[in-house]
Structures
1.
Amino acid sequence: MTALSGRTLGWTILGLAWGLAAVFAYAGGVKVADPAAFAEAIGNYRLLPDVLVNWMAVCLPWIELSAALALCLPAWRRAGALLVLGMSGVFALAILSAWVRGLDISCGCFGTGSHGAGAGALAIDLACIAAAAAVWRLTAPPAEARSSESASHPRP
Amino acid sequence: MNPSAWLKGLWPAARTAVLVLAAAVLLALGVNALRPDGLKLFGSPGKTTPKVSAVSLDELRRHLDLGTAVLVDVRGPKDYASGHVTGALNIPAVPRGAFLSRVFEWLSPDELIILYCQSPRCNYSRDLAEVLLNNGFSAERLRIFEGGWRELQGAPGIPVIGEER
């Protein structure tokens, strides 16, 4: 981390956090717009019992939107990164499981018309995990709060 | 790589994450309860109400061809306007009071009524079939098309239009 100057570090964090926020805001938005379609996509994975499918379809998009919002707010950025890490980890396992079982289904990542639950979807998920991990690591913990603040609020 | 560096500040961030998560879930449940195409969270999705039969796509097509049934689209007006089966009446499931008054205004218990919603996971058709059963309509004159609009659009022999009637 010391290889990056404070200003470069700040912009790197902003770029990663806002990029991730944009991806998750879009993903959450399209799912909120059509919860029934998302419920279908979840059901197609055949991983959850029927009673949980609708709960997941209702709650997950709003968690994605909230994570996107948290990533945009410096004080909540690490919490947002944690949420993204958790969600992307679960998504990656689900996609991997569908891939291994040979299910020919839409990944449901970005609403209807998403690409299949295969290598492409997994690559996007792993990229999100890497970006969230970088945001988590680059954002200084409380012990380094002073440098974190200057890193999170770079001067233009 | 130093693992302790990754774990620094985990607890406060996790606490905030849990708060954000809880707020998101509450918001999600509130919005779902208010929106007309909200999903049913309790009960068993995917199963037809025992008293009311489901109708297959072929049967639905035959009824449409012969004009022997009234098709009711129970989705919201926006969804209906963006596309629906030609001739289907739009009687949105929510608000329930408006639904019933429009049912009594437009439908008769003597005709065969087929309800459809957005998709197989949308439970409004099932719920509303029960409402109709409790309001003088007989199970023999009620059907549900479980595939919903998602299966109807693009299905061969099903005329659809994209404009509100």
2.
Amino acid sequence: MPASIPASFFLFRAVRHFWPWILVVAALGSAAAVVAGRYTPPVYRSEAILLMQQYPGAPDARQAGGRLKDMLMASERLSKVLEDARLFTHLRTGQERVEEMRKKTVFRAHPGATFSISVLANTPEQAQQATRDLADGLIEDDGRLRGLEAQRNRIFLQGEKKRLQAEVKNREDELQAFLREHPEVALQPEIELVTTDDGTRALEQELERLRQAQDRSSGLGGLDSDSAASAARQRAEMELSRARLELSEKRDLLTEAHPDVILARQRLDRAEDAYKRSMAAESASRKAALTAATSPNAESERLAKQIDTLESKLASARTGGRGNARGRRNKELAPLQVQYQSLRHITEDVRERLSRLEEQQFQAEMLEKMQTGEGIGLLTILDPAYRPAAPEVNRGLRVAMAGIGASVVLGAFVAFLRALISDKVRDRRDVEWLAGASVLAVIPKGGTRG
Amino acid sequence: MQGASAHGATDVEVLVMPAPATTDPRLVVAEAPQSQAAGSFRALRQRVVDSPERRTFLVTSTGPGEGKSVTAANLALALSELGRARVVLVDAHPAAPMVATLFKVPEPPTWTVTLQARRGADVAPPWEVVRQGDADVHLLTACREPAVPAPLASDYAHLLALLRRAFDFVVVDGPALSARPDAAVLAENVDGVIVVASAGRTRARALRQALEQIPANRLLGTVVLER
């Protein structure tokens, strides 16, 4: 198996035996780099700071940054600036000059709604002029475009306002016509269609209490027939409570004409009928049980009479609320009331939309004035382009330093290649590094070949 | 040429030859004993004999011409300075023999020929080692003999065992590790292996590969020859 030599051995040898190569290549390269650095022209950077005004309705500065950058880097704008400032004349085609200008132009958005534009050029005058032209042109173009947008927006809002005003008028006319036809609706806006007062509930609770007392007194609580009737009555009672609760909840949320309310009302009617039937069945069952009992006592009879009386009162209370004249009138007025409320709601909604539109229109007009120069401009120059007093960086020094660094790296690479190509051992340390065994002796130069 | 039995070992016969008028200048331990190079070889000697049971050494390299024969010869000379120790230098590279050249031995005997003669003989002829004058270094020389087959591993083992009994130190000038498999065989029959690396000549990859071929318990270390 051929022995493999690690690359570190050649690095070790490159440094030990071929360091002159590193020096020579580095020296030659550095000299060339210094010469190149001396002939590298300096560059100057000028910068302008723009401020975007902040007020209600103004565009977001971060979003505006992207748009402004695209506008700034547009070929048409850059071409104009290139021509005015006579930049990059050494390049042949206009497209090449525009590309070079894009490389030398930097646009940055900063916190606080400010933006900076900077341009690198070969002379301070060129840098200042190009930066100033770019900033001025950007403000002008941005204002013009925003003015056009605001104008279009205003025209649209005006048209929309007219349409809404006409709609408000129509709705109001419709409402007035309805009230002229049904003035009673306006006089009695609130209608109660179903009553479930506390007196009825108190009667029901008292009736339940008497029935339980009767059961205890007569000792019939455990009879199956009576228990079944009582259970049926309790179920009907629970259903009645649930139907009342549902109707109450639906009324809180919906109008009387809504299908859900109508369904809930129908459910309540059915529950009331079922409850009446269950009460009759329970009463009959109870009487039959009492008749069959061998020794009915006086207490049971008294309780039975009280229950009969209470049941009559309760029936009267339940039917009385819906049978009077007021209830009938309310029932007749309910659809009209619903229609009236609907007309009112629609009219108010249109008025509210019109109000919001007027507010938008006011903001749009204000924005348009600002962006068309009648008020404060959206973009203003916070810090104008200055004439740089010194080159931005010493490009010559930078080129020279880069060249020297590259030369050293190149020299090291050449030395490494040299060590790689010539793998002959040169001295004791080479052998020690390779062999890992001890060097017994180093015989100095002189007559030992053979 | 004069023959004699050496040290009571009947298998080894010492041929005493007159010392040459001049020797190879690369044998710095003999030619320039005060030189820095000679001092370095003596330092090498001290490093390799730090253990008393270590008496046989193979000197090899990654490739030809990297200085292993000169190193082996100078190591043998340096070892012979240790109280006039009996040292034999074996030329184990018959394809490119150098020992006879370095020590300027005219018409040297070739141990591979002796090896071939011992294989078929009823009475085995002795191994002939050369001694120049009263030097303590004995030479088991080799010459290029294309007709003589290469020694087997068992031949090396037998020969080195015999020499170990007859001499205080045995230094083997072996072939390059990359050239022949004999070097690996020899490495298994000696007490220590010394790898010679020549600055500016030995390749890093070859050296690393060669060192991986040598058993760790045999490897003594490397000798770096500066250019």
